[in-house]
Design goal:
Order of helices and strands: HEEEHEHE
Structural class: alpha/beta
Low-confidence stretches: none
Radius of gyration: 36 Å
Mean pLDDT: 84
Helix content: 25-40%
Shape: elongated
Distance between the termini: 73 Å
Largest sheet: 5 strands, mixed
């Protein structure tokens, strides 16, 4: 049964809004604002890299070498089918070049090729010290 409070001499219930919860919520929001406001004004100094004027890009970069790996694992370089040993020999020649003269080795693998074929080419390139390896997306 609802309890009514009397105001004066009438028997009507009090219809005033209880603002205590509203004041509690507002005080919490004020405290949160006072805590987070100094954090938002805190500055963080970041040293961004500056362009180096002494280093110039190569004028005639070497033509990239493209390796195509088909879905069945066959390897092609310069539109010529190669065995793993032939490809390793080509990568070894590239790896012996000076770092700034090495052409980029670009790998284009079929969508359905097993990862082990791609991993083998990558590990061979790393083992013979090829520095620039990229991937070509056919889509």
């Amino acid at each position: 049964m609802a309890k009514s409070f009397k105001r004066g001499s009438s028997n009507m219930p009090i219809s005033d809004i209880n603002i205590t919860p509203l004041v509690d919520v507002m005080l919490v929001l004020v405290i949160i604002f006072l805590i987070t406001a100094p954090i938002m004004t805190h500055k963080i100094r970041i040293d961004l890299p500056q362009p180096n004027q002494d280093v110039k890009p190569p004028e005639n970069p070497p033509e990239p070498k493209k390796i195509v790996i088909k879905a069945d694992g066959t390897l092609y370089m310069a539109n010529r089918r190669m065995t793993e040993q032939q490809l390793l020999g080509q990568l070894r020649v590239i790896g012996q070049m000076p770092k700034d003269k090495q052409p980029e080795v670009q790998i284009q693998a079929d969508d359905n090729v097993q990862y082990k074929f791609v991993a083998k080419v990558l590990s061979d390139a790393k083992n013979v010290d090829v520095k620039k390896v990229g991937f070509i997306n056919t889509n």
